[in-house]
Amino acid sequence: MAAGVLVDFPSMGSACFFPSLESLLRDSTSRFLAAVSAAPDPDLTNFRSLFSRVLTTYPDPPLEAVWFFSALTFHDAPDDLRSILHLLSAFTASSPAAAKPLALLAPVVSELFHSAKPRREIEALVEAVLSYISICSSRPAGGEVNADAGRLLPGFGELVKVWSVRNSRDRCPFQVLFPLVGDEARRELMKDGCSVTFLAGVVVAEAFLLRLCLKVQGVAGVPRSELQKELRIWAVSSISVFQNQQFFGVLLNMLVNPPLPVYSLLVCVPFQSMYHVVAGNINT
Predict the structure, then answer these.
(1) What is the tens place of the pLDDT at every residue in 107-142?
(2) Which residues pair with 8 in a beta bridge?
(3) Would residue 84 count as lying in a domain?
(4) What is the distance, to the nearest Å, from the Cα of residue 5 to the centroid of all Cα atoms in its chain?
(5) Number of compact structural domains in the chain
(6) pTM to 2 decimals?
(7) Is 217 within a domain?
């Protein structure tokens, strides 16, 4: 962002100016991580006040600012994933395009993967995520080029740490936040200036694979042939609904470069059928 960020605080009768949103996020991320590491329950009031004002300065708040603000909310109630899903989706409810609303969901999908909640509760939330993805995927592509042509800020990698700190255990933050896609997709996300559309495709792929894993885990005792048939029907229908070229590209790359990160959980999945469906969607 070329212009600076002016944040007004009416109750204080003052305003704060930041040279750029990127500089604000870098500084805030550093302070947030320091506060979280220093105390189990740090006082994040100042962060909330600042970023609630930052968000109001934009008619369509940047993804990075929304992620940071939602991370503050999640830190206070880490078990309330449904509220975070509603919060993230609300910020882009009026967006004419699909990429940004989808990209915003990355932290929710990651937290669902790492969650220790009962499987039924996780399944319900994953279904809610997939329903939201389906709604976004049905939006006309007319506004896609202009609305989502932007790229992630150079400080995006630091922001990933904010959402991965709870589950990092000394692992790469990108591996924590994007646990289901392959290394190639993560390397692309680590590049400066990665596109929002690519991030959106990764999020759709992760949500798709997470639901697939849950389906496999929840059908103990079902004959393999019957399970394969059920999974094939679900996978093919879902892939057809998610009309997202970046998703097709990410998933196709994973299918032709085995093993999948979650291959051990998906031994019953008919990957050949999935490959043909994905390849067919890319070519149409």
Answers:
(1) 999 999 989 889 899 999 999 999 999 888 776 554
(2) 15
(3) yes
(4) 25
(5) 1
(6) 0.85
(7) yes
* 273 lies in some domain: yes
Question: Cβ of 198: how many Cβ atoms within 10 Å?
Answer: 21
CB 55 within 8 A of CB 69: yes
Question: In terms of Cα–Cα distance, which of 99, 97, 109, 5 is closest to 50?
Answer: 5
**Containing H/E element for 16?**
strand 14-18
Find the angle CA(195)-CA(129)-CA(257) to the nearest 5 degrees: 55
Answer yes or no: is 138 within a domain. yes
Number of Cβ within a 10 Å radius of residue 20: 15
- Taking 3-state DSSP, the helix, strand and coil percentages for the chain, each rounded to the nearest 5, stand at 65, 5, 30
Distance in angstroms (rounded) separating the CA atoms of residues 235 and 240: 9
pLDDT in tens, 190-206: 998 899 999 999 999 99
105 token code pair? 């969901």
Structural domain of 257:
80-282
pLDDT in tens, 57-88: 888 888 999 999 999 989 888 888 999 999 99
Q: Is 73 exposed, middle or buried (0-12, 13-18, 19+ CB in 10 A)?
A: middle
Pair 217, 171: CB distance under 8 Å: no
